[in-house]
Structures are given as C-alpha cells and as structure tokens.
Design a protein that fits this description.
The chain is 39% helix and 27% strand. The chain has 408 residues and is of the alpha/beta class. The protein folds into 3 domains: 3-89, Alpha-Beta Plaits (2-Layer Sandwich); 93-180, ACT domain (Alpha-Beta Plaits); 190-407, Rossmann fold. Helix 6 runs antiparallel to helix 7 and helix 7 (215-226) runs antiparallel to helix 8 (232-241). The longest helix has 15 residues, at 158-172. The chain is elongated.
C-alpha cells in the first residue's frame, strides 16, 4: 500500500537541486502528488508530496545523501490517510484571489488581511508578490506594491467577508480586491473605459466652462451629478446650456491641457500587447475622445457629439445623450461585436453614471471614484494608478516588463 510523504527542501538556491531530488524519487518509483517552489532572496523552499510504494527509510537516506553536497536541508513528514483525503477534497472547493494594493506594503497590513481571511473560513495556500523589487533607498519613497493571496474554501458569509476587507482598506489607506478565481479571470478580452476623471484627470465639461466664464457654476453641478445626487441627463443639459455661444476654437486648447491619469499609458500599451480590445464609452464629448484615441490607440470610442454651428457651441448635443443606461447598452453591443461574453469584459469608471456598465461587466472597477460608486462597484482602486488593474488580472511587473522588452 502506498505511503504519502511530504518532503521539504530548503537552503541557498542553486542549479540542479530539483533535478537531483527528482532523480532519486524516480529510482524509488515515487508518484508526485503535488509540488511547489519559492525563492526569496536566493533562499529556496521546495516541497513535494509523493506516494511511495515502500522503502521509505531507504528513500530518505538516498535523498539526504544526494542533497548533502548541495548543502540543502531536507525534512520528511508522513501524511496520514485522513489528512491526505482532506487535501484532495479541497480540490472541489472555490478559490478566491485577494489582491492587496498599496504604495507600500507592511507586515501589519498582511497580518490583518490574513487574519480576516482565516476568520472567514478560507485557507491561504499561495502568496505571491506581483510588484517589482525595491532598492533600499526606495523604501522611504512613495511607490507601488501588490501582494496576491490565493485562498480555498467558501466563506460562511461572503458579504461580511467583503465588508471586513473594505474596512481594512479604509483603515490602512490601501485597496483590497476580492475575486472568485474563475476561468474568466485571465481570459478577459475587452476593456471599456469612462473618459472624464477616469482616463484623464479632469471633467472636460468643467474645462470648457472655465473658457466660457461659468466654471464654478458648472463644476458644482458636475460634482453633484457624479455623486449621484442629480439625474445625469437633466444635469448634463443644464451644464451644456451654460456653454452656449462658446467659441469652438478653444477645443484644441482644452484638449492640449488634458492630462492622463497615472498609469493610463502603461495600462493601454500593455493591454494592446496582450491582445485586448479597448473602448472609451463616455458621457463627455467625442472631440476629446478622438484626441485620446490617437494618443492611446484605443479601438472604439463612443461619446456625445458636441453640436457646433457657425463656429460656436450651441449648448446642445447632436443625437441621443449617452447616459448610464446608454453606457451599459454600448458595452453589451461591443461585447457582441467582439464575440465575447460579458464575463470577459472589464469596465472602468468613476461616476454614478458608470454604475450600470460596471454592474454588468465581468469585472467592474471604480477608479478613484466617488464614495457611492466605490461602495457599489465590484472592485475599487483609489491608491494606485490605472495600471494597477493589471495586478487584478494576475499580471506581475516582471510579466509586463518582459512583454514590453519583447515589443521593443
């Protein structure tokens, strides 16, 4: 009858360790049931769970002799049948991915996340650093860091688990994302972005209002609309009406001073290299969406058509206003055009009018959003830039750097 044995090897990493160990195991006709390896600062930790027909003592002696010249420590633990079966039974349980995003990750944050996860009844079986390594002189500087936790099990109360993670995010000024690890996580194909205050750091209508001399009046209405306190269509018409008579010659001037939000260029370039399709679906204006399309190589743009007559803004739009429902409809239309399921779509926005499309996308992300939107969306990013979305998809800095190097 087979015995189950857990072998743990540790020590300074060097070539040939796994090969040497595997050779011994093959001599004893061992079956590898599980294997995992991690290297932190040149220190290797390698674990194998094997099924062994017999000769355990002889195998242990042979493994120790093989690894001794490599100066590796080795430990053998017999796994009881009941414990092994419990491990096998874990296979059918759901897996969750918890992603911690911060300017800097410290031990207190990790302790809090892992404790809340334990209290929810989940078992963390893998922890990975997705962000790049830091030099010592960088430790005191604002940076970007991401740790990914993979956990198995079904939380007794998923809503309470999410609430507990949100409470931690607020306490530590970090972002914490919780996702079910489904087949779609690394199989997203389409990303739909809002424009104003999402891809760029301004509301274009507010910038136009400054040029028209009604900046404060329009900005106050915009702020209330984005918080969800006003009907979007009514507030949009009211703000747009205040722009009537504005010289259309100011549009290029406004476009030139718009600034991309942190991480936008890196994110869009990486998505393009990964084969994603991208779209801007905005309640703003098509002139500025086209401007961004040229800069970021976005595949599709949908935005309101600012009506201009005799070189001046009329205070009207040509066609139907793109509101929250319109954004959701356009997302569905784009998914159908690209032949992808809604589960394969990512939507990113910041305002209340983005909530309908965030709700139907497979991954809806509120980016530096108003409190109502951040609380309602599936995920929220407020501490890092737009390219932190890559961490939520499971991509590490090393992945994206290698992708960039291949393209250059």
């Amino acid at each position: 009858m087979n015995q189950v044995l857990l072998i743990t090897v540790s020590g300074r990493d060097r070539p040939g360790i796994t090969s040497a160990l595997s050779q011994v195991l093959s001599d004893f006709d061992a079956t590898v049931l599980d294997i995992g390896q991690a290297v932190i600062h040149d220190q290797l930790s390698l674990g194998l769970m094997i099924a062994l027909p017999d000769q355990r003592a002889a195998l242990e002696a042979a493994v120790a002799a093989q690894l001794a010249p490599l100066e590796m420590a080795v430990e053998f633990v017999a796994v009881a049948d009941a414990d092994y079966q419990r491990w096998v039974d874990q296979q059918g349980k759901p897996r969750y991915i918890i992603t911690l995003l911060a300017r800097r990750v410290d031990a207190e944050q990790i302790a809090a996340v892992t404790e809340v996860t334990r209290q929810a009844g989940l078992n963390i079986d893998k922890i990975s650093r997705l962000s790049g390594r830091l030099a010592l002189h960088q430790l005191s500087e604002p940076g970007r860091a991401s740790i990914e936790f993979s956990a198995r099990g079904e939380p007794a109360q998923e809503r309470e688990f999410r609430s507990a993670l949100m409470e931690l995010a607020g306490r530590f000024d970090v972002d914490i994302a919780l996702q079910r690890d489904t087949i779609y996580r690394r199989n997203r194909r389409l990303v739909v972005f809002d424009m104003d205050s999402t891809l760029i750091d301004a509301e274009v209508i507010d910038e136009l209002a400054i040029e028209a001399g009604v900046g404060a009046q329009v900005a106050a209405i915009t702020e209330r609309a984005m918080r969800g306190e006003l009907d979007f269509n009514e507030s949009f018409r009211e703000r747009l009406g205040l722009l009537a008579g504005l010289d259309a010659a100011v549009l290029p001037k406004v476009a030139a001073r718009l600034r991309l939000n942190e991480g936008a260029e890196h994110l869009l370039a990486t998505l393009r290299r990964l084969g994603y399709k991208t779209a801007i679906v905005s309640g703003g204006f098509d002139y500025f969406a086209r401007h961004l399309q040229e800069i970021l190589a976005v595949d599709y743009i949908y935005a309101n058509q600012l009506e201009i007559a005799d070189g001046r803004v009329t205070g009207q739009v040509a066609g139907t206003i793109i509101d929250g429902r319109g954004k959701a409809d356009l997302l569905r239309e784009l998914a159908a055009r690209e032949g992808v399921a809604l589960e394969q779509v990512i939507a990113v926005g910041d305002g209340a009018n983005d909530l309908p499309m965030l709700a139907i996308a497979g991954l809806g992300i509120a980016f530096r959003a108003k409190p109502l939107v951040a609380a309602s969306a599936q995920q929220s990013i407020s501490q890092l830039g737009l390219d932190a979305i890559l961490y939520l998809l499971g991509y590490s800095d090393r992945d994206t750097e290698a992708l960039s190097a291949e393209a250059s």
